[in-house]
Design brief:
This protein is an alpha/beta fold. It has 2 domains: 12-50 and 86-166, Rossmann fold; 175-293, HUPs (Rossmann fold), CATH 3.40.50. Helices cover 43% and strands 20% of the residues. It has 10 helices and 10 strands. α2 packs antiparallel against α3 (69-102). It is elongated and about 75 Å long. It starts with 11 loop residues before the first strand and ends with a strand.
Length: 294
């Protein structure tokens, strides 16, 4: 099953699901965004046939031909059966997710199943994505709290669309936090919050962690001006000092933040290799969803 997605606005909330523990939460957050922004919701399941090296490629050169040809045929048939099973399993995952959402009175759900790598799929669909929603961990690291999905960083670095990373049970956001550092990605986050209907009626904590008080005040003032243009948004401005990831994670927990909005991977690859990525630290340590922008 592979469908082409078409809608009038040419945008969609795209939720990536694979049957892992976080699948229902991914569906819930995607549905929340879809309903508040009046954007169509599409569920995506990908079938990667390259996870295993085909058995035939391992054995065909070793077992010889002739009397062993029937074995090669059986192996080929087995691989074809495995491929069909993957497709059927994917269809079941998609249908289960649709049934789950429909029980919550959410309708008009699209679904698509694509062959190939997740990264390739989302890049191919990027022009039609308003927000991408996916779990922090897929099946490969299910229930391993100290792990993140093997493809997650590559997806974040490859896609130039807002990405919501879900890491726990669904909790409808009432209070959000913008981690603001004055970077272009952080400015983009502020502009998005100020202009999107998704955040109507929410409390927005604008938080800057900077050891230089004058710099922090200046940054917060320029961001606050943009947020004040938003209708029905209660803004709380906070300045903190210390190590950014630790301070932000502590603030989230102490103030019942439901969702954090921040820029992603603003540093260079070299910086990340030497010091570790700030985004990666937030992904591993935060207990609430992260909406990332590049």
């Amino acid at each position: 099953m592979e469908s082409r997605i078409v809608n009038n606005k040419n945008t969609q909330v795209l939720a990536c699901i694979d049957g892992a523990t976080l699948t229902s939460s991914v569906c819930d957050y995607a549905a929340w965004i879809s309903q508040k922004t009046e954007t169509p919701l599409t569920l995506l399941h990908t079938i990667n046939h390259h996870h295993e090296i085909p058995v035939t490629s391992n054995l065909s050169g070793n077992i010889g031909l002739g009397s062993q040809e029937h074995l090669l045929e059986e192996i080929t048939n087995l691989e074809q059966q495995q491929s069909k099973l993957k497709m059927q399993r994917g269809k079941m995952i998609l249908q289960s997710a649709i049934d789950y959402l429909q029980k919550k009175d959410i309708s008009g759900i699209n679904s698509t199943q694509r062959h190939g790598d997740l990264i390739e799929a989302v890049i191919d669909l990027e022009d039609n994505i308003r927000v991408l929603v996916l779990g922090l961990r897929g099946q490969a690291h299910d229930n391993q709290e100290n792990k993140i999905g093997t493809k997650l960083e590559a997806v974040i670095r490859s896609l130039h669309r807002p990405i919501l990373i879900v890491n726990g049970k669904y909790n409808q956001p009432k209070q959000i936090m913008i981690a603001y550092d004055g970077s272009p990605a952080a400015d983009k986050a502020v502009e998005m919050v100020a202009s999107s209907s998704l955040y109507d009626g929410l409390v927005c904590h604008l938080v800057c962690v900077n050891k230089n008080e004058d710099t922090a005040i200046k940054l917060l003032e320029q961001a606050t001006k943009k947020l004040k243009t938003a209708n029905n948004l209660n803004v709380i401005v906070i300045q903190l000092k210390g190590k950014a990831d630790l301070e932000l994670c502590a603030y989230q927990e102490q103030n019942n933040i439901d969702l954090t909005v921040m820029g992603a991977f603003s540093h260079t690859r070299l910086h990340d290799m030497l010091l570790g990525s700030f985004t990666h630290k937030m992904l591993v340590n935060t207990k609430i969803p992260l909406l990332l922008l590049r």
